[in-house]
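User: Sequence in, structure out. Go.
Assistant: Echoing your sequence, followed by the structure tokens.
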Amino acid sequence: MFVYDAERICNWICEKAGGAYTNLCTAIGIEIDGELKVAVMYENFTGGNICMVWRVDDPKCLSKKFYWMAFDYPFNQLDVHRVTGIVRTDNEKAIKINNKLGFEVEFTLKRFLKDSDALVFVMFKENCRFIKGKYD
């Protein structure tokens, strides 16, 4: 089931990814039997960009419909040109997933985190395959 409780979802994501929920964040998630399995949080909207933070505890819950919803919101509803994600340089799993989704590395933030550099990933609207056509 899709859920839209921003405070609950964002706190669940931040529990693993770090950071903190603010009332300026929004989110979409999937829950099964009352337990969140997958979610994406949106923050730092600038008009042209919004940051996405993902948490995927059960990859089997991901679907074309969820990907479409996750990218439809920023690109079609907010009409941003790009979405941005920041990933620790030692998080190989997240780097692999971002590449597979079609994000590209824009640059490296040296000493961005207390114990790690970070990669800035970007996806431009015209490159997003998830909003081009039907999801089912």
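User: And one key feature?
Assistant: The radius of gyration is 14 Å.
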